[in-house]
Amino acid sequence: MKQVHIKVALVGNPNAGKSTLFNALTGLRQKTGNFPGVTVEKKSGTFRLSGSEGQPDTAVTVVDLPGTYSIYPKSKDETVVMDILANPKHPDYPDVVIIVADASNLQRNLLLFTEVSDLGVPSILALNMLDVASSMNLTVNAVQLAMQLNVPVIRINARTGEGISTLKEAVKQTLEKREKPALQYFYEPKGNEVELIEEVRELYHLDNDYVALQYVCQHDNFSFLEQPVRAKLDTLIEKYGFDENHFLASETVARYEKIKPIVSKSVKSQGITEQPYWTRKLDSILLHSVWGYVTFAFVLLVIFQAIFAWASYPMDMLDAVTAQTIEWTKEALPKGVLNDLITNGILAGIGGIIIFIPQIAILFALVSVLEESGYMARVMVIMDKLMRRFGLNGRSVVPLISGVACAVPAIMTTRSISSRYERLLTILVTPLMSCSARLPIYTILIALVVPSTKVFGFFNMQGLVLFGLYVLGLVGALGSAWLLSLFIPRKEPGYFMLEMPTYKWPRWGHVGFSMYESVKSFVLEAGKVIMAISIILWVLASYGPGDSMSNAEKRVISEMGTKPQEEIDVAVASARLENSYAGQFGHFIEPVIRPLGYDWKIGIALLASFAAREVFVGTMATIYSIGGDSEDVLTVKEKLLNEKNPDTGAAMFTPAVCYSLLMFYVFAMMCMSTIAVVYRETHGWKWPLIQLVYLMALAYASAFATYQLLS
Amino acid sequence: MNLNKERMSARTVCSLRKGEKGVIKSFTDRDMSLKLLEMGCLPGSEVRLDAIAPFGDPICINVGGCYSLSLRLNEAAVIELE
Description:
Main location (chain A): membrane
Mean pLDDT of chain B: 85
CATH superfamily of chain B: Ferrous iron transport protein A (FeoA)
Strand content of chain B: 25-35%
Domain FeoB-type G (chain A): 5-177
Mean pLDDT of chain A: 85
Number of strands of chain A: 12
Strand order of the largest sheet of chain B: 4-3-2-1-5
GO molecular function, one term (chain A): GTP binding
Strand content of chain A: 5-15%
Number of domains of chain B: 1
Organism (chain A): Dyadobacter sediminis
Number of helices of chain A: 31
Helix content of chain B: 25-40%
Distance between the termini of chain B: 22 Å
Low-confidence stretches of chain B: 1-6
Structural class of chain B: alpha+beta
Number of strands of chain B: 5
Oligomer: heterodimer
Pfam family, one (chain A): Gate
Distance between the termini of chain A: 76 Å
Order of helices and strands of chain B: HEHEEEHE
Strand order of the largest sheet of chain A: 2-3-4-1-5-6-8
Number of domains of chain A: 4
Largest sheet of chain A: 7 strands, mixed
Shape of chain B: globular
Helix content of chain A: 55-70%
């Protein structure tokens, strides 16, 4: 049967329940991507409206637009909303807009509604959080509201799914309405605004007064307007003596004048209006000058304990499964190059990826719980003053904590910091937060040199060292922000202003979904790189220039003469690796990394990990499985433990070398994707290059100092 | 000069004690006033100082009993009270 495709956009204040409604409408049929031309994350999903008798079904695409308080953007993300709603030619321009409103704060939520409605897009008001409103002694009369606003008003509970089917029905009815009712503007232009609008409308063939007005106010934010158009609009502003700042304030006041009587007719208060009891009670503890920080510190400690100690059980299992699979494959396949490629190249690479899934899943689940519950906003408040001392913003806490997962999405979340200066500093220091890609490296190296003993009967010693490394990353981030703020001039004052949502139980579906998404993107995005590098490394380590490898092999055999066959095999393998492309590469950079305590083998891994840090462990696995006894399948940790320093004969991975490597990875900017995202977000090579040089120097210096002190 | 003195002595949200209420009269900064208006701080609404973050800044105010807003002190100083 023929199908009709339509688009619906979700618009609403932050915390009004927009994302929850999005999930309720689309279920799991959603995907994330970017809005065309801009680097703002776009969440879209679909649902289906069954057609009335004889009519085809309608496939509805829902786009979740960034949360905003008005159509005048305060941050980079928010510019997307008007870029779409003011441009009917935009591929995401909706047929219907659903404005999600928090019923417990209707007056403010209706500001955005009246603005969007004036743009002339067919609108539906979804009245959410009625339960919160009623706990605040407020009752909202939706019928009265619909009459006053002249649009469908649907009572919903996005969390329980109540009213969702009615909302879908309303979308259908709005679409089926043959003729559009004449638009009643909530804002009536005053004075010479009328002539200005008239002229803009004629010039650009616009059929809506308010869109014309937005051409005047926001043309610099509109990606669809060419430079000559912008210049022309500037001359019009000049001609009419249009004062934008004055207009914005008076428009907003005029809108509230319209909204106030509507709200007083449709919202009735019974008793004193007050925020929910638990929100006030919890705030008195979580914002407390002592308990606030104690709680935050405890929350952080639990996170690190969880990703290190609790995740070790599933990780051990995955590790065993990988080792078993490699052994089994090795037996099952005929000996030869292909066998070697599959076991030591491909399977070793896959093993290096899946082993870290438990940690990433747990971390993302916990961060998601903190955001969902409303606690993250409190953390921003108690951290703002501290962050400001380093030139940052309370909002920098979210990128910094997300940086513990991955710097790439973390740097993208800085777009919510509306002060450009504080945003830049946050971008520059976020890669210092230890991301999950560093976790594998930390895990392996800590396991090598730190005993797994219990401290105070609960905290694992290895967990504490790991915690220490994360703290070091944080200290490095804050210290660097402070240092950079001394050199980068500040042009504008900072800005905080943050609405505090009421506390809510996390929706487990959301937590699960965000966990699933992060694991998926790790496996697909990072996994691809790890896989590719695993195979490239296997090639580089298995082949050498000319016949240098076979020459080395012959030389070793003739030197060793009558030694036992096993010893000869090990020596041959090691000599072959040393003369392969990879080995020569490692030797080439050895002089530079020798002062840090690294040999050429670590050098190979170091270089490979510039593509992505997690590659380090996979590379080590490849290098040492080739260099070691090929009959034994050992896990990476055991291989590293058995590795001997060829000069001294003692263990290669001494505490000095391990700690030096740990220091290097805490500070180094070893990630191509991060450099790319900083380039994109700062619009140029200046900042990513400054960041790269600065972080590499910091890493080298700390690793050097550590090795020299400990050895 | 006189006007300036009046400005200085005007009661703002910063001069509230914890738990104390006030009614918004006007804003002294145009840029900031638009942001505050859009976030629902309207002249005539009642505000209450609910919490002061550790180190005295930022503060949390309750606006009209409806919701809680956190502001830095320099942002709160823009809101004059009746």
